[in-house]
Amino acid sequence: KMDGTLLNTAVWNDKTQSHQHISSCAFNSSGTLFTIGDSDEGVTGAPGGVDGVIIAWTYPGLQQIKQQRLGQGGYDFLTAMAPGKDGKMYAGGVQYTPYGNRWMVQVDDANGVLWNKTYPNTNENAYRTLVALPDGGVVGAGEFAKQGQFFVQRLDSSGYEVRHVVLGTSPKTVKILDSTRDDSGAIWVAGILLVQYTYENWLFRLGPWLDNQCVTPCGPKVWADCADGNDCTTDTCNGGCLQVGNGLACSDGNACTN
Questions:
Q1: Helix, strand, or coil (residue 87)
Q2: Using CA atoms, how far apart are residues 21 and 157, in angstroms rounded to an integer?
Q3: Run means of pLDDT, 10 residues per run, the chain, 258 residues
Q4: Under the phi-then-psi rule, with left for phi > 0, alpha for psi from -120 to 50, and beta for the rest, what region is 3?
Q5: Which residues lie across from 51 on neighbouring strands?
Q6: Distance between CA atoms of 159 and 217, rounded to whole angstroms?
């Protein structure tokens, strides 16, 4: 409750001999509580594997509404989630089949699977954090386990890739911790960078379409958003900004302004 007293609790454990983990929880826009995690019981494939699990719960009663066990019979983990539009929920992680492929699932308000997709890669990459977008899409970020790099990927509402970028330089080790979206639509990604036995905190900012620099008519590259709906903005960027012409000639202090 608001005063800190315990309202209710629930134990997720269907069998006594199992390994189960809840990695994240979030409410959708309808007020249903969702949890994601993994379990080695009732595996979708051969014994010894791990399933990703999504559970919808009543609140505050904490009774299971529906449980989804998902995977391809290997080692499949759900590690990040974000509530989307119209009661939908995004869950992302990694499927080892055998390489670590990015894995994203969208479920509806009743925990029915709307789509379930992987994005193959041979460099062991997993979603660590997700940000839902107003258009129904989602941005996911994570790291390449063996390369010292991280990726940021934008998907549309049907799970098709719009764009992805890869940042960072080997052999630096990168760990993605969190991400968010500000009022301008920019995506912020936070993490830790290991450089010569020293950990450094860092924060990276990307535009709504995962552009990271804007080119002005004056020539210099500056940190700024371009496709921001501002009539003063040039809306011309490196790396895939939407091209939208100016409606006005004015000066508003925006670094992208003509």
A1: helix
A2: 28
A3: 62 54 90 90 63 89 88 84 95 83 93 92 79 93 76 90 77 81 88 78 82 42 46 45 42 52
A4: alpha
A5: 39
A6: 35
